[in-house]
Amino acid sequence: MPYQEATAEDVAFFREHGWLIVKNAIDPDHIARVAGLCEEILANRETMAFDWAWEKGVSREERAFRIVQSGPTRFWPELNEETFRHWAVAFAGALMGTPVEFWYDQFLAKPPGNDAPTAWHQDEGYWGRNLADKGITCWMPFHDVDPRNGCMHFIDGGHLDGVLEHRQAPHVQSDLLCCEVDELRSIACPLTLGDVTFHHGRTPHMTPANVSSEWRRALTQHLRTVGCEGEGDHYPWKIYVNQFNGKVTVPESR
Ligand SMILES: O=C(O)CCC(=O)C(=O)O
């Protein structure tokens, strides 16, 4: 049955490991609805999305969209009323042990035969320091996923290791960040349609390149503790690359 409440075992596992797989979490018909909307983003990616792995040396007009990145709820605010949104907020609050609220989402899609992993990173590496221990992410693929088409991988217990030093991912001119991890602690999380993962904002994670013959499509919902005001100062590696106007900004407070 989709939309189950978090059990005491779920909470204990998440606290110890920093991540969790929830099987059969979401009604596939509800996933189909948001997936349908995201097709419009794919069809109009030049105006509705960034390329999160925009290669160095390639002009903005010629970006290959190796990782299509967009915020569907900014285009369709009615997604806030979807059952999967309310469920993710409630479930994540139980895992964090405090009420959380929806912050922003990302549609992340990788074309078939793709050569762009989403490099190892912690979400906290992107976020301001106010988010310390206050963020959690729900990752919801639109189809079955495994290591060949870009399923989620986590560093087990990595949320307990502090914020790691990040840097700009090599060969990209987007804001894609990366950090070094102990890959021996990596856990691959293959999922079937309807399953999701949750991870703590400090859990290092990555998804491999999509070497399958179909697009890899997923929605990531980022949630934060209620009352968490603004992002605060950023870490020294943070930059913003606005691909709609080509502007690169270094935050004043980092
Ligand atoms: O889907 C991906 O490629 C990466 C997702 C991710 O980094 C996240 O959900 O925090």
Give an overview in words.
20% of the residues lie in helices and 26% in strands. The protein is an alpha+beta fold. It has one domain (8-249): q2cbj1_9rhob like domain (Jelly Rolls), CATH 2.60.120. A 7-stranded antiparallel β-sheet has the order 1-11-6-13-4-3-2. A 4-stranded antiparallel β-sheet has the order 5-12-7-10. A two-stranded antiparallel ribbon has the order 8-9. A hairpin with an 8-residue loop joins strand 8 (167-168) and strand 9 (177-178). The longest helix has 16 residues, at 28-43. The termini are far apart. The site of 2-oxoglutaric acid has 10 residues, from strand 6, strand 12 and strand 13.
Descriptive labels:
four-stranded antiparallel sheet, 15 strands, alpha+beta, 20% helix, Jelly Rolls, globular, seven-stranded antiparallel sheet, 254 residues
Unreliable stretches = none
Tell me the strand order in the biggest sheet: 1-11-6-13-4-3-2
The arrangement of helices and strands along the chain is: HEHHEEHHEEHEEEEEEEEEE
| Ligand kinds | 2-oxoglutaric acid
**What is the count of structural domains?**
1
- What CATH architecture would you give? Sandwich
The Cα radius of gyration reads 17 Å
Largest sheet: 7 strands, antiparallel
- Helix proportion of residues, in percent? 10-25%
Secondary structural class: alpha+beta
Number of helices: 6
CATH superfamily: q2cbj1_9rhob like domain
Could you tell me how far the N terminus lies from the C terminus, measured between alpha carbons in angstroms? Answer: 45 Å
Tell me what portion of residues adopts beta-strand conformation. 25-35%
* Overall average residue pLDDT: 96
Q: The CATH topology, please? A: Jelly Rolls
The number of distinct β-strands equals 15
